[in-house]
Amino acid sequence: EVANEISEEEANQKRLERVFQMTEMDDLQAPHQLPFAPLCIK
To answer: Highest taxon of the source (predicted)?
Structure first.
């Protein structure tokens, strides 16, 4: 159970890092018509 929570935490961290990288890339491109925000629902 504890190991599962740690791996889930790591997965969430990696997911956040990917989102930030995507956001940085989007900032260099033309702005989108509809802004979006990643949602994490537990």
So the answer is: Eukaryota
| Coil, helix or strand at residue 36 | coil
Note whether 26 and 32 are within 8 A (CB).
yes
Give me the amino acid identity at 15. R
| pLDDT one-digit tens code per residue, 1-42 | 677 777 999 999 999 888 877 777 665 665 556 666 677 777
Secondary structure class of 9 (helix, strand, coil): helix
Where do the structural domains in the chain lie, given as residue ranges? Answer: 1-32
